[in-house]
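[Discussion] Sanity-checking designs against the backbone

I'm trying to build intuition for which residues belong where. Below is a structure token string of 206 positions. I'd appreciate it if someone posts a full sequence so I can compare it with mine line by line.
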């Protein structure tokens, strides 16, 4: 995946490909978007189909990056792009409460793939008797997805973040939570514990 890397940052330690900027301290969202090279906006250009009597119908939209006019893709006419600053702003309430810090962010494939990674810190979760079996089952799937499924590390990482690996991880989490919620003697906080642990596991991918 290193050949698809465009820009990004990592806190304290570089990723395996040694690309991007290494920060000594976790950034705010404002700092992160600059350090990751994501301080640009998506602009939209309508694509028309000309009908009889010169009437125009907007069929699709072309997306470009305002910084350099780089082509990002073609989408449906009613698609609304999520701007980078809007995506990063989602983390502000979590950062302000503490216990979460930004770990990495960046751009792949010329801005067509944007990612941001946060990590839970100094957080404890109660281990509920009986939920360890579900956690072990879920963890065995994530272990296989993150470390064994693909032969090449680049393909495995890309799949885990954006591809079928990400979808399988979500499905495994949903199935585990459904089994837990259906259990007649499940503790009310067990669902939170499993959710916390799965989030913590996902936050260690870098």
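Best answer:
Here's mine. Compare freely.
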């Amino acid at each position: 995946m290193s050949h698809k890397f465009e820009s990004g940052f990592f806190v304290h330690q570089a990723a395996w490909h040694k690309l991007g900027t290494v920060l000594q301290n976790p950034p705010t969202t404002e700092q992160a978007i600059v350090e990751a090279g994501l301080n640009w906006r998506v602009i939209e250009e309508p694509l028309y189909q000309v009908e009889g009597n010169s009437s125009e119908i907007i069929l699709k939209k072309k997306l470009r990056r305002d910084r350099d006019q780089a082509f990002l893709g073609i989408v449906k006419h009613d698609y609304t792009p999520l701007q980078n600053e809007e995506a990063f702003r989602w983390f502000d309430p979590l950062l302000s409460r503490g216990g979460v810090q930004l770990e990495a962010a960046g751009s792949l494939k010329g801005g067509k793939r944007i990612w941001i990674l946060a990590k839970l810190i100094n957080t404890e979760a109660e281990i509920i008797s009986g939920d360890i079996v579900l956690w072990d089952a879920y963890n065995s799937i994530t272990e296989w997805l993150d470390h064994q499924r693909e032969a090449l590390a680049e393909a495995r990482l890309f799949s885990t973040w954006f591809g079928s690996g990400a979808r399988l991880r979500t499905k495994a989490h949903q199935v585990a939570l459904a089994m837990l919620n259906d259990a007649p003697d499940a503790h009310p906080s067990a669902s939170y514990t499993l959710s916390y642990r799965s989030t913590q596991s996902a936050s260690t991918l870098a």
